[in-house]
Amino acid sequence: MNVLLPAATKNQIPGVKTSTGFRPIGFRLTPYLFLLPTLGMLTAFSLIPLLYGFWMSLHNIDVLHGKSEFIGLQNYFNPLHDSKFGLSLVNTAGYTLAVVPSIVVFSLAIAVFLRKSTPARLFARVGFYIPFVLSPGGRCNFLEVVTE
């Protein structure tokens, strides 16, 4: 029976390809209109400060006297001639190579341990949810004491 077929297949001739039909412009723009607020906030609070920070890095700014002088990429070349800069890179790399893998291994070990149904799992869940539960209660108690 023809009534049970979807609307797109009702008037199709077997073996003949047909287009999906005409979609109004508003229908094609709707997803992008939903993205506009997010893109606007991302631009306002991420992209503009990033570009302004880069622009400021190209200047020598004296905050106390309100003066600035354009120096170009000199702020990026100065650390290359500083002996402490190389040491700080080595320290940062060593710290990163020591801490990041240990955090990953420790987190995975905890996850595997808590995967089993043990009393520790119950305590872990309680420890995770207590800040969410007690925080509103603490605010209520504080307001009750303050408003008496």
Give the class from helix and strand content and strand pairing.
mainly alpha
Spell the H/E element sequence.
Answer: HEEHHH
* Distance, first to last CA: 74 Å
Q: Could you list the spans in which at least 5 consecutive residues all have pLDDT below 50? A: none
Keywords, separated by commas or semicolons:
two-stranded antiparallel sheet, mainly alpha, 5% strand, 148 residues, 66% helix
Describe what you observe in this structure.
A two-stranded antiparallel ribbon has the order 1-2. The chain is extended and about 60 Å long. The mean pLDDT is 83. The chain starts with 24 loop residues before the first helix and ends with a helix. It has a domain at 22-80. It is built from 4 helices and 2 strands; from the N terminus they run αββααα. The chain has helices at residues 25-57, 74-77, 83-115, 119-146, and strands at residues 59-62, 67-70. The longest helix is centred in the first third of the chain and has 33 residues, at 25-57. The protein is mainly alpha-helical and 148 residues long.
